[in-house]
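Ticket 4471: requesting a sanity check on a complex prediction with NAP. Repro inputs:
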Amino acid sequence: MQADLVILGGGPAGLTAGLYASRARINVVLLEKGMPGGQMAATELVDNYPGQPDPILGFELAQRMEAQARKFGLEIQTSDITSISKTDSGFALYNEAGIAHSCNALILATGANPIKLGIPGELEFAGRGVSYCAVCDGPFFRDVEVAVIGGGDSAVEEAVYLTRFASKVHLIHRRDQLRAVKEIQEKAFAETKMTIHWNSVPEAIIGESDIKTLRIRSKLNGSVSELPVGGVFFYVGIKPADETFRGIVKSDDRGFVVTDENMATSALGIFAAGDVRVKVLRQISTAVGDGAIAAYSAQHYLESL
Ligand code: NAP
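Returned structure tokens:
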């Protein structure tokens, strides 16, 4: 299928780029391999998105963004693109069956995925107590103790969310200060079901058919303790979803795409928006801004051809 513009990824950056491109009457298609919404849809409550004084479910905000973009004519297709190549007139996008789409301009809005820590038991118990999504799996841990690994916004926010279900939430953080924004920290400190294990790192997840314990080690004195948890949620950061275009555009040493302020990448005709690019603040609000700029820049690029 030929389009002037293809947007890869349907999180807030991609949906906003789609909204702006559709309103500009560009022949555009957005390709998403799963459900539109990205990480936003897997977030329980969003309470820092402007214009939304009451917290809104991430899933609902995703649905609203999708509906708004579709209202202006955005075509969204489910498609698992595996690679991209440059052609004489633009770009070809491939899935496992061969060329799926070709286009003159491309917006990369593939977002980011959770990093795996790689401790013993993490892989073995994946889907059987190890999770990277509290919203998806939290309700399975009603009246069970769980552990959350990390000290950033995601870890602390999701640890607070998990107190709704779990009998106790152990937050394991490798330092003596959280990285999460203060407002989220305050919620965690006020939560009676939460115990924070400072200066501690997870060492192994132990069990048989289910998880029985999480072994953690103190970084201060090396002492080891075993927490009687049935679930372990990892939030130790994110890595860009860059598999399909690695090497085509310039990226930093972690794989995040380098852009200028117009969201242009090092490859003419390719723009990037949202969490996948190098930026100081990864938020829904900043992804939305990126998406609008990327669509505007793509429009000018297409007009210049
Ligand atoms: P993050 O901000 O990179 O935090 C990762 C956390 O994991 C840090 O506390 C880090 O510890 C810890 N960590 C990293 N490697 C580790 C290891 N090997 N062992 C133990 N701990 C390790 O990642 P994130 O929380 O997933 O957030 C990703 C982005 O999304 C951020 O930009 C964040 O601000 C944004 N976000 C925003 C919101 C919101 O605004 N409500 C919600 C979620 C995410 P150190 O602190 O010691 O480095």
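Notes from triage: The domain at 2-113+238-304 is CATH 3.50.50.60 (FAD/NAD(P)-binding domain). Leaving this open until the requester confirms.
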